[in-house]
Structure formats: structure tokens, C-alpha cells
Structure prediction request, 535 residues.
Amino acid sequence: MGKHLEERLMLGLMLASLALVTGSLFLILGTVIAKGLPALNLAMLTQVPKGGYYLGKEGGILNAIAGSLAMATGATALSFVLSLGVALYLQLFVRQSSRFAHLVRLSLDVLWGVPSIVYGAFGFTLLLLLKMRASLLGGVIALALLELPIMVRGMEEVMGMVPFGLKEASYALGATRLETSLHVLLRQAAPGVVTVILLAFGRAIGDAASVLFTAGYTDHMPSSPLRPVASLPLAVFFQLGTPLPEVQQRAYAAALVLVVIIMIISLLTRLLARRLSKHVVR
Amino acid sequence: MTDSVIQIRGLNVTYRDNGSAIRNVDVDIPSRQITAIIGPSGCGKTTLLRSMSRLLDLIEGVRIEGRVLFQGKNIYDANTDVTEIRKRIGLLAQRPFPLPMSIYDNVAYGPRVHGLRKRAALNALVERELRTAGLWEEVKDRLHAPASALSIGQQQRLCLARGLAVAPEVLLCDEATSALDPISARCIEDRLLALKADYSIVLVTHVLRQARRLADYVIFMYLGELVEHGPADQVFANPKEERTRAYIAGEFY
Prediction:
């Protein structure tokens, strides 16, 4: 009887936390949809802000959509290349229990927790040093830094799940570490790696603080890597900050666009991951 | 006495976490015969087996002392090409681990790694080794299907074909039938018996009946020490050591 009670109690607690988590998520999503959907129209998605847009006149946020996509894509690509190198190195060339490996992991975990405004400030200092101004490139660099710890740690975890016997099978045939990592480790871990990329992309495209100083903001479409670009999180931020209710509504619409972009990319990633898992050994 | 393919001299292996695994092992592995390493769990059978192709190197915190001579050269010499050793001394593991690719690519993986690129040559090789492993008839129509879709017995035969495809001289089998159903196990055993004409085979087993069925030569390990080794008939019928006799009689496992 005591055991049954225990089980019921635990089940109840789990259901309560599930309800709390999903409930608040749906509340956010619901608010964004309820307030954003009425303000959403074709013009918003296809036009850049015209004069007086922030006072409720016509125009759209195509500049921010394009800027966000460009920055997040660039940052994810840059971060992926760097992270892959680090993760493979940690997996293949460093003894897993060595002090060096622990130190690298610890610093990455700490970096994961650093507030994104710090990345923004760091990126801004870097730009000053290079005598550059806020630009697409600056935003890409800041977001890539933001993504690095997520990517490296995520990839490392995913690659660490590859069974030892699988790597041994490749080594036992006389394959080198590089061959084993490219043909066996990466293939086996591919669906997980794709998910990690999505995670990092989502973090980057939704971040406002790190692009505030590094990418700036503009009403124009992105034209050059060295010129400022707009981004959706900042579009939300600026529009919410106005006192006009119709502009605030547009902020919710911009947030909705951001959510939809993340949803589309998430679905595409799942499709890709399913494709890649065709050969995965379980 | 037939000639030997591998000579082990004064081999000591220690693991950082578990201490000594095998101590002072001296033994010659006969050429083109089946050698069975027997003994109770945790006696160092697998360590001894993996020490012969430098697969122990992959384990963290392992220390290896002594020499393992393969064709007169110590494979633990600093200038040894490890990939070459692993190519010439193959492994069939306890559980099949097909690589995350198609059946065809699994067999072609090793030859490709060692530089074979010609399509026709690869096709011929894949067919030959799949036939040798007794898998060809079952997979010839779906060579490009994922290897992970095969049954576990088929997977183990695929692993055998994959191992043979790099033309090793020695085949190390680590309880290669223990994860299989009896029919698949028998199938692998038959293959090994057929293969000993061309390969030197070393297998670890804790199934005494399997050792009796297959082995020409037997090594008995107990608590990290090599207790006795000799021709299978002699060790099974007339062991010199009391511990060997007791193990074979089933007095402990």
C-alpha cells in the first residue's frame, strides 16, 4: 500500500511539472499568436519599413527577417566548422579522463552560461580593435561565439554515445583515426549532430543582446557584410518599446514570424535527421 | 612442432583502474591452426587476445610490457605501423558491430581504406568474401541496404566477411559466437574450421565444448596467468596442471 501511494505521489508531481512547463510554453505561444496574428499581413513579410513605420505607417520587417536569417546561417556555419574540429579532436586525440579534457569541457560549460550581452560586448570590443563598425560580419562573429559552447558540447555528447565496439571495428580493419572519425563516427552521430546544429541555430536566431552592438540595426536590406543589418529579436524589442498600441502589435507579429521560422527549420532538421539515420547502427 | 605465427614473450598488461590483467605470458601461437584461449571470466583471455593486434592501445590507462613478435618483429616497437598490424591481424568481436553503411560498403570499407578504388575489383572482392562468410546468397539482392537491418547472426557473418576483405594473416575471435543463436553460432564455427587452411585463428571462448570442437591448440589462463598450453588432444585428455584438470572437469567456472 505504501509503495502504491509513493508511486502515485511521484506520478502526480511529474504530471504537475509537465503541466507547468508545457502550460507556460503554450501561454507564451498563445499570447504571441493571439496578439500577433491580427497584425500580420503580406506587407509585413514583403516590405522594408517605410517612413513613419514605427509610428504606425506602412511597411514591413523584411529587413529583419533577411538579416536574422543571414546572421544565424552565417554564424551556424562558422561555428559548425570550428566546433567540428574541436569536438573531433577531443573525441579522438585526447584521453577522455585527462585534466586537459576536463578543463576544456569545464570552460565550455561556463561559456554556455555566460549571458549573451557579454558576447555582444566582447564582439563589440573586437570590432573596435579591428576598426570595424557594427555589421553583418560583426553579428555573425558574436553569434558564432554564442553558438560555440552549445555546438562543441552537444557534438561531443552525441559522438560520445557511439559505441566503443563500432570504433574498434573500424580500427581493427587498419583504419586511421581520421578515417574512423569521418566514415564511422560522424555517420553514426549524424542525426544527433544535425539536432545539435538546430539547437545552436535556434539560440542564435532568437538572441537580441549579442547583436545589439555588433550588428546594429537598419531599415535597409542586408547589402554588404560590412554594413549594419536588422534582426527579428531587435525588431521585436524596438517595436515593443514604442508607446503606440498598433506598433506593439507588430512586435508580436514579428515574434510570431520568428517562431514560425524556428518551427520550419526544426521540421526540416527532423526530416534530415530521419534520412541520415537510415544507416545508423543501434 | 609446427611453425608459429606469433610469439609472445614476457607479456605483462596492467589497467590503471583494475590493476594487473595478465602477468608474464610466454606462448607461441601456431600457424594455420585454431588456437583456443580458455579460462574462467576475468582471467585475462580477452586482454591476451587483443594484445596481439594492438587493440589494447585504444583503452585508456593501459600499460603493456614485454614483446609480441609477429613475423619476427615486435609489434610494440615504437616504429611499428599500427594500421598495418591491425590490417594483417584481424578481429571478430563478441557482438557484431556493422558499420553505419550498406552491406556492400561494410565489406568494401577495409579495402577502400587501404587504397583499393577500382569498382570491378571491389565488386569481385565483396562477392568473394561474402561467399566465404556464407552470406552471399542471403544478401546478393540487397547489397545496398543498410547493414543494420540484417539479423544478428547475419551481421556477425558480415563482420567476418568485412574482416577477411583486408586479407589478414591472423584472425582473432573474441567469443565471436556468444551473442548468437545456436544455428548462427554453428555457421560461424563451420566457417572458422574451413578458414584454418589459410589463416591462423585464435579464439577466446568460455564454452569448453566449443574449444573441444574447434581447437587444435589450447591455452588455459587463470587469474591473469598462463597455466598451461599445448595441443588440444593432450590438454583435454591429459592436462599437466591440477588447475587445468579441475577447470576442464567443470569444478569451477
Notes: DSSP finds eleven helices and no strands in chain A. Chain A has a mean pLDDT of 92. The two ends of chain A are 39 Å apart (CA to CA).
